[in-house]
Automatic annotation (TrEMBL):
This is Glycosyl hydrolase family 2. One of its GO terms (molecular function) is hydrolase activity, hydrolyzing O-glycosyl compounds. One of its GO terms (biological process) is carbohydrate metabolic process. Residues 157-264 form the Glycoside hydrolase family 2 immunoglobulin-like beta-sandwich domain. Belongs to the glycosyl hydrolase 2 family. The keyword Hydrolase applies. Residues 636-693 form the DUF4982 domain. Residues 274-423 form the Glycoside hydrolase family 2 catalytic domain. InterPro entries: Beta-gal/glucu_dom_sf, DUF4982, Galactose-bd-like_sf, GH, GH2_Domain-Containing, Glyco_hydro2_dom5, Glyco_hydro_2, Glyco_hydro_2_cat. Keywords: Glycosidase, Hydrolase. Pfam families: DUF4982, Glyco_hydro2_C5, Glyco_hydro_2, Glyco_hydro_2_C. It comes from Kitasatospora viridis.
Length: 813
């Protein structure tokens, strides 16, 4: 079957009930281009709660007019929706045509029996959001839509699968299977011709076999193809191949399909861990949510690709899709760029976590969603692990283990070439014991420090309880149904389980970012632990303020209502190595140092106004440090400087004058700490190993008038209506030094065939929308995202108070 993009020509609006609409009370439709997030432009409401980032729920509807050609009358016509949040209902010419409760699962609707060929038709989609997510979900048709057409005899949709059966440097055996369907009245005999091409387009294998297909009985055709000297896919060398399949009747091509795949092998055992093409690989993992920051939940291909690019540049080689399946376009990017994937199916099974979440639909729809996820992933070499859940409350109970086995076996029945895991957290009994222990530890401190101190104490008590019998026994069956035991915040089990369960392979499915030095040592020292996935690699909307930094003397925190979310106007979680605009925060450079991927020391400066204050940091909080030596008004004030380095020792100098030396490296938590006073100038950190310089870095104080540095990530983009250019905007001095200590409102005007798709900063607490042409910088930075609407020259004019305006040009072709 042939897929055609179906993203243009849609309109969207907030929906009102039918009776209000009959009375003329309904908002007007607005033209939109898919993918689209209907929620990101709404006014936030303090009453909506921090889980959603204080965005209110609602009901939305989309419509599109479509005139199918008359010659499609005898064809099978489907509409494929890759993701609609949530409880999607599809109507064609007013008639119900299909639905899907999950907001992240692809689904198809058979349209041919509803369409009037040669005439105009209305396609309408309704969806709704209401207290059904623990993070910002967005709303609407947030992933691509396709029109899918095939003849009476055709290749099934997603019916071509390529599997590596054996491979080494000299040869590979590749199995290609194709499902052929026949809607006719009589059997049909055809030839199935296949070919495999390498990255340069050269044919490396081919074959042809006949097949007879009975009416209403799909036939699966398999061919084993031999590839000499294959280019194997790996994170370091993500070589891709293309398989072409053609159905031939006589001299006529009846149908055809092309799939991209990679030739690679996977092995798993407790002695070698995870092996790809025979080489052991440790997963340097990032948990990520699905939103694209200032774009909301819309899964633009370029936005998804850019996230993968930046995560890989930051040292990650794997991502975990928390807590729902990834988009197809992000999987495509992972294949091209060499990013390994743990694709996760569910955040809940039968026990709800929010009042109206997917648990209400799970018992009926889980098989459909697993089938859709596996079908989507089958040809993507980047996918190495399926996760069947995240912190499922019932997982550590007998009936929960039954569900786990049921889901895991369903996955294996559809795809036995990858491994199954589940992000398990400690059982409820252990959780309650930990809370009681934490209360005992705090004693009289609770009234002074408030619920934030309680959260920190509970987190530590939970961590310590992970190795207890309260966890060992109840989780044994749930872990037993898996190929890899996924453990959320349970690293104290790693070495315990090496003795208790010698055949168990473990992955840290979710871990605290502040402990990466300890966690990575555990990964390196234990062959049965295949990797670590931090919470999170990229900041996200919703769970507002989970990672916020607090101080004991802060009036806004003392006595706050218990809970981990921040109060309005907190918007992002403020948990992530990279902020929502793609800017690498200090923990990213610390992690890169711990991974052994960075030789240069990284200078992180504590804000001078916080010097001497008592920090009450949560388990996901990173201290308020900035890579800046520009602090106007703080001359002579005490200041703390940290330098992240894997070298043995670090020397700090200001304008060439030594400020001291301090030990660093793993034995000192990869940190050298200096107490000094602030003076403007050039601050230099020099790392030493075995008495010799290992690397250096510097920060220079900004001086003089403000300026604007405006940098598009690309000078040329596609003109098809869906491509994006990301434009970083930074306040600087006349020499280009960043002004992290200054913020200004920035205005962006777009001229030419383009629209401003989003504008925002990494500021975690703000009332400014991402859909306006003006936004205030955070730590001197803001990001503009521009979408081309056609070919031509696009001009961005950027202005800010006290700055000369700047114009940049991008070509859309």
């Amino acid at each position: 079957m042939i897929r055609t993009p179906f993203n243009e020509g849609w309109q969207a609006r907030e929906k009102v009930n039918r009776f209000l609409e009959m009375g003329g009370i309904a908002p007007a439709y607005q033209d939109v281009r898919l993918p689209h997030d209907a929620m990101i432009g709404r006014r936030r409401d303090p009453a909506a709660g921090g889980a959603s980032g204080f965005f209110p729920g609602g009901v939305y509807e989309y419509r599109k007019s479509y005139t199918p050609p008359a010659d499609l009358r005898d064809q099978r016509v489907l509409l494929e929706f890759e993701g609609v949040y949530r409880d999607a209902m599809v109507y064609i010419n007013g008639a119900y045509a299909g639905q899907c409760p999950s907001g992240y699962t692809a689904f198809t609707v058979r349209a041919d029996s509803f369409l009037r060929f040669g005439e105009e038709n209305e396609i309408r989609v309704e969806c709704r959001v209401h207290q059904d997510s623990r993070w910002y979900s967005g709303a609407g048709i947030h992933r691509d839509v396709h029109l899918v057409v095939g003849g009476p005899v055709r290749l099934a949709l997603d019916g071509v699968r390529v599997t590596t059966r054996d491979a080494d440097a000299g040869s590979a055996v590749v199995e290609l299977s194709a499902v052929v369907e026949n809607d006719g009245l009589r059997p049909v005999s055809l030839d199935v011709s296949v070919g495999i091409q390498d990255e340069e387009g050269g044919q490396v294998a081919s074959g042809s076999v006949p097949v007879t297909v009975l009416p209403g009985e799909p036939a699966t055709v398999r061919q084993r193809l031999y590839v000499r000297d294959p280019a194997l896919w790996s994170p370091e060398r993500p070589a891709l191949h293309t398989a072409s399949v053609v159905l031939v009747s006589g001299d006529e091509a009846v149908d055809q399909d092309r799939v991209v795949f990679g030739i690679r092998t996977l092995q798993l055992d407790p002695e070698h861990g995870l092996r790809i093409n025979g080489e052991s690989v440790k997963l340097r993992g990032a948990c990520i949510h699905h939103d694209n920051g200032v774009l909301g939940s819309a899964a633009f291909a370029r936005a998804e690709e850019r996230r993968v690019e930046l995560l890989k540049q930051a040292g990650f080689n794997a991502i975990r899709s928390s807590h729902n399946p990834l988009s197809r376009v992000m999987l495509d990017a992972c294949d091209r760029l060499g990013m390994l994937v743990m694709d996760e199916a569910f955040d809940m099974w039968t026990v709800p976590k929010s009042d109206f979440d997917y648990a209400l639909s799970f018992p009926t729809w889980w098989e459909h969603d697993i089938e859709a996820m596996v079908r989507k992933n089958a040809n993507h070499p980047s996918v190495v692990l399926y996760s069947i859940g995240n912190e499922i409350p019932e997982a550590a109970t007998p009936h929960g283990a039954v569900w786990g086995r049921r889901i895991a076996e369903k996955v294996r029945s559809l795809d036995d070439t990858r491994f199954v895991t589940n992000g398990v957290n400690i059982p409820r009994a252990a959780m309650m014991a930990a809370v009681m222990a934490a209360q005992g530890r705090l004693a009289g401190e609770f009234d002074t420090l408030g619920p934030n101190a309680m959260m920190v104490a509970v987190s530590e008590a939970i961590r310590e309880s992970a190795a207890s019998e309260l966890v060992t026994g109840p989780t044994a069956e749930s872990f037993g149904v898996l190929d890899v035991a996924g453990m959320n915040y349970m690293e104290l089990r790693y070495e315990v389980d090496r003795e208790l369960f010698p055949n168990r392979v473990i992955v840290g499915t979710e871990t605290h970012p502040t402990r990466i030095d300890e966690l990575w040592r555990l990964v390196l020292d234990n062959s049965h632990v295949i990797g670590d996935f931090t919470w999170t690699g990229w900041d996200y909307l919703g769970e507002a303020g989970v990672g916020r930094v607090k101080y004991a003397d802060s009036e806004s925190e003392t006595g706050q209502v218990a809970g981990i979310a921040g109060a309005y106007p907190w918007l992002t979680a403020w948990v992530g190595d990279i902020d929502i605009t793609g800017w690498r925060r200090p923990p990213s450079y610390y992690r890169e140092t711990v991974f052994g991927l960075r030789a240069e020391p990284y200078i992180a400066v504590h804000r001078p106004e916080n010097h001497g204050r008592r920090l009450v940091a949560g388990p996901w909080s990173w201290p308020e440090v900035v890579p800046s030596w520009s602090w106007d008004g703080s001359d002579g004030e005490p200041i703390t400087v940290e330098v992240y380095s894997d070298a043995e020792e670090v020397e700090l100098l200001l304008d060439g004058v030594p400020l001291g030396r301090a030990a660093a490296g793993e034995t000192n938590g990869f940190r050298a700490v200096f107490e000094t006073v602030y003076r403007p100038g050039e601050l230099v950190a020099v790392a030493y190993r075995d008495g010799k310089e290992h690397g250096r870095s510097s920060l220079v104080s900004a001086t003089g008038p403000l300026g604007l540095a405006v940098r598009p990530d690309r000078g040329q983009i596609g003109a098809d209506g869906g491509d994006l250019v990301f434009v970083s905007i930074m306040l600087t001095d006349h020499q280009g030094n960043a002004r992290h200590d200054v913020d200004r409102p920035v205005t962006v005007d777009v001229e030419g065939p383009a629209v401003l798709q989003g504008l925002g900063s990494g500021r975690p607490a703000t009332e400014e929308p991402y859909t306006a042409p003006v936004h205030t910088t955070y730590e001197g930075r803001v990001l503009a995202v521009v979408r081309a609407t056609g070919p031509g020259e696009i001009t961005l004019r950027v202005s800010a108070t006290d700055c000369e305006p700047v114009a940049v040009v991008v070509q859309a072709r």
